[in-house]
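Lecture 7 notes: from sequence to structure.
We start with the chain below.
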Amino acid sequence: MDTVKYILTEDDMPRYWYNIVADLPFPLPPVIHPATGRPVGPDDLAPLFPMALIAQEVTTEREVEIPEPVRDVYRLWRPTPLFRARRLEEALGTPARIYYKYEGVSPAGSHKPNTAVAQAFYNKAEGVRRLTTETGAGQWGSALAMACRFFDLECKVYMVKVSYHQKPYRRVLMETWGAQVVPSPSPDTRAGRAVLAENPDSPGSLGIAISEAVEDAASRDDTKYSLGSVLNHVLLHQTVIGLEARKQLELAGDYPDVVVGCVGGGSNFAGLAFPFVADKLRGKSLRIIAVEPEACPSLTRGVYTYDFGDTAGTTPLLRMHTLGHTFVPAGIHAGGLRYHGMAPLVSLLYENGLIEARAEHQTAVFRAAVEFARAEGIVPAPESAHAIKVVVDLAVEAREAGRAQVILFNLSGHGHFDLAAYEQYLAGRLEDYAYPRERVEEALKNLPQVPAAGD
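Predicted structure tokens for the same chain:
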């Protein structure tokens, strides 16, 4: 009756990823080639991705088998535990039952290895020797550095400059696994040099770092590019989170009324939420809430249109909620949420009313994070703390209404490498950044014109 942890065995780990595209009642807009206006084909993506991942990007199959070598690595930390947050419930005096899926038990400390391991495997299988990528706060970069080490691949990480200096131990972690890490914008690429020429003090952004990593990969025959969020195949790999959570809630004899996740590019949110979106499409009544930073609110304030995934405009065009690919967010400590756009699948669900979105300021987010840490003991990553802020609000609403409800959220990573941010918060030095309307409006002026097919 007082169970805190719900644990699955390794045999219970999913054998298939779940592809939500198979169950959507509306079409997913195609990815467009910026020069032709036509949907991109495999040949357009081949310079960046192995064919297996390109196939997963476009598949409409409901289930995609997880290769055994990937499952073998997953066993290092999966299945991850589901916790009942009984101490937080008591601290809040709420009748709500709060559960969290804890992805911080992975060696890299976050959910990111779920796709990093898969991507490294598929690249290695097709003879790739080297991967490039970008990273914000460092969760993705460290996950890919680890995965590349497991599959004997070289790894170069372009780390957003503000996070490179805010979180030096993330860099050390990546370098310990053998990756080369440079602050972005860097002098190593044309895209980086162009930004530095215009603004030598640029704090960087995920969009800039993507431009650098894509340029690097496209310039070498032995190298592919690896992305930690946004694209369909990345979100697909993360669904092990939600698939496990459903089994664990069955053990608890519960089912969520509300599912909550932080959202930047969309990967950890989708990983938890998509299996429950499938239930909602089949008639289950539940709310699903994505929580983003007020300083970079692509879902709640962005425009749903075609845009580049990177600042330099080198990627195909994705239909997504965007603040404009040239927008550079403020240097909030939730570096993993500082992306101008949102995953096309998450954007589509939001546009069609299947999920909700909220934007939160970072001081309120850290207040909730400290409250959670003092009750549950785990210091959450600043990204995950955005979800916790809304969970606390929902639990207080349940208390005021005298209404029991079941709340599930994804604690996507721990904050052990983010203690400088906690130090600033505890010292009263952390500041909020208002929605930068003028800078977003300026960035939206640079949205690409989608050419008519054949032009």
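Points to note: The chain has two domains: 5-10+68-109+233-444, 18-66+111-231. The chain has a mean pLDDT of 93.
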